[in-house]
Amino acid sequence: MLTYILRRLIQLIPVLFGVTLFVFLLMHLTPGNPAQLMAGEQAPQEVIDRIENRLGLNDPLPVQYVRFLGNVVQLDFGTSMRSNLPVMDEIRYKFFVTIELAIYSTLLSVFIGIIAGIVSAVRQYTFSDIAIMFVALFGLSMPNFWLGLMLMQWFSINLGWFPPTGWGSASQVVLPVITLGTAGAAVIARMTRSSMLEVISQDYIRTARAKGVRERVIIYRHALKNALIPVVTVLGLQFGTLLSGTVLTEQVFAINGMGRYVIDSIMARDFPAVQASIIIISVMFVFVNLIVDISYRFLNKRIDLNG
Amino acid sequence: MGSENNILRVNNLQTSFFIDGGHEIKAVDGVTFDVPEGKTLGIVGESGSGKSITALSILKLIDSPGKIKGGEINLKGENLVDKTEKAMRKIRGNTISMIFQEPMTSLNPTYTVGQQIRESYKIHQGLGKRESTEKVIEMLKLVGIPSPEKRINQYPFELSGGMRQRVMIAMALACNPELLIADEPTTALDVTIQAQILELIKELQDELGMSVIMITHDLGVVAETCDFVAVMYCGKVVEYAEVKTLFKNPRHPYTVGLLKSLPRSDIDQLELIPIKGTVPSPDNMPEGCSFAPRCPFATELCHDHLPDLLEIGDGEQIRCWIYTDDWDGDPEVKVYEP
Ligand SMILES: Nc1ncnc2c1ncn2[C@@H]1O[C@H](COP(=O)(O)OP(=O)(O)O)[C@@H](O)[C@H]1O
Ligand SMILES: [Mg+2]
């Protein structure tokens, strides 16, 4: 298992290379001169030249890329064109806001999704099953910005239970997390249900029953571990959706996170800020998928042999 | 037959599946047999005759839409049909154990062999990990698994089919059951392994003194391993006898048909004779004897009325009009001519 993790980490290197190269080229292949952009429309030529020299924009591209890479490794993404502050300083706080939002939403999706899925499967075709699957379908088909607006309308404006915007206090966390976590919970509930139903009809479940194992233990010990294997895969895929979901959720609830920062940076053509955001989000995505793969192998011992 | 020393007596067991809103499939419909203590009863019949459902009914492991509709399952004088689920759990894997046809899928792929056998000790004897590990190793040794200390930490996918069936047997026998139900334990295995597994079950039976129900579709297996035999056809027992008697003097035309389709070394019979016709489908059961459409001796009585399972001396039971006073066909009929 340890060698597997090590090998997977080494495999990440080319992926990260690719991401940085893409981000680098993004800046250099988009129309418009970055120095001109920084200096402003009416800046005199000599100011532009000075900026070009300072940033080394006249060096050959490979040289620039190596320099860029060197800075990225030191977490130096340059200064924001808008604020002239180091991008990293701007992002640090926002990054943790988004991470928090993503983690809470994932936890909500996983807990609610798995529990709902199990209940649905164990009580197949009963009222609880039908009700859960109806709610899941609803949660799945509802766009999350719409859900966010609805929650805000009801629980903040009409009922006044939660503040409508911001992030930080426990009461501010509730609505955004529900907004972002609902679709994932629905997907996981449906997946857990079908996976569980398939596992319950397997021969080894009958073996466990014939051994005298009580029903609760059969569900949670014998069936769930097998049923979760496909669910974990879905979880990895779901994380990509979740990240893009943070952009909308942060917009709706006016949360100062990475998602909003990316949008604002793109609008302002603030290249260093865009580059930094993309790299950080990509690294996060890649590592989450690594964690998913590792837990997948942990659950499914069979693939240990040929990997 | 003598009632003194039977560990299990099944009487007129009926198990049905209710599908598509009430449509009834009578998977088991009148199964009666005794399992004498320390002996092996064979249940033989073609695929679909209700053998597995009979076995699962004994452990009350019939899932909805299936239901035990009637009859008695007497284990040492106690009727299991009346037992609660909780009481049944104490019996499963403890007093009565079962092994299945498919060793490849009958073990949980996500737990080690050791964990799965240990669970039996935990449930029925409350043993902790350390105490039970020793017993698990002992059990694995008993069923002939080499280097059990290593095997205990392996997952099922690391074992061959034969090894897995040995693990299943070890798991079934862990708590020293009084009755082992083996549902076609060798059907899915290679021929050479089949003989080994049957031999192993016999040895363990002698060693541990348990009774066995050996379910098979192969009369050859019955001849080798069983003391008594119940022949099943379409969910019913049609003949019950001692194995010696059955092979020497089979009475039911279906049993005779089965025997004729078996290669035998004692008679110079090279030609196998298959039974004519096909098994009727569960939703199209004949009104009378279910074998009547394929039976060479069937009369109007057979087609219209179902015979009862009747005792005809010396513990033998038979479900056939020929052996009753009501028989309306040739009184001199010879069902079996050696
Ligand atoms: N889950 C089920 N639903 C409906 N019918 C079933 C089910 N399981 C078994 N049966 C019926 O019971 C009959 C006997 O099955 P089984 O006991 O498995 O036969 P076998 O003698 O091959 O073990 C089958 O022919 C089938 O029609
Ligand atoms: Mg069967």
From TrEMBL, chain A:
Signal peptide: none annotated. Its main location: membrane. It is a multi-pass membrane protein. Residues 95-292 form the ABC transmembrane type-1 domain. It is found in: Cell membrane. It comes from the Bacteria. InterPro entries: BPD_transp_1_N (IPR045621), MetI-like (IPR000515). Coiled coil: none annotated. The chain crosses the membrane at residues 12-30, 95-119, 131-155, 167-189, 227-253, 273-292. Keywords: Cell membrane, Membrane, Transmembrane, Transmembrane helix, Transport. Belongs to the binding-protein-dependent transport system permease family. This is ABC transporter permease. It comes from Evansella tamaricis. The lineage of its organism: Bacteria, Bacillati, Bacillota, Bacilli, Bacillales.
TrEMBL record, chain B:
It holds the Pfam family oligo_HPY. It is a peripheral membrane protein. Belongs to the ABC transporter superfamily. Keywords: ATP-binding, Cell membrane, Membrane, Nucleotide-binding, Transport. InterPro entries: AAA+_ATPase (IPR003593), ABC_Ni/Peptide_Import (IPR050388), ABC_transporter-like_ATP-bd (IPR003439), ABC_transporter-like_CS (IPR017871), Oligopep_ABC_C (IPR013563). It comes from Evansella tamaricis. This is ABC transporter ATP-binding protein. The keyword Transcription regulation does not apply. It comes from the Bacteria.
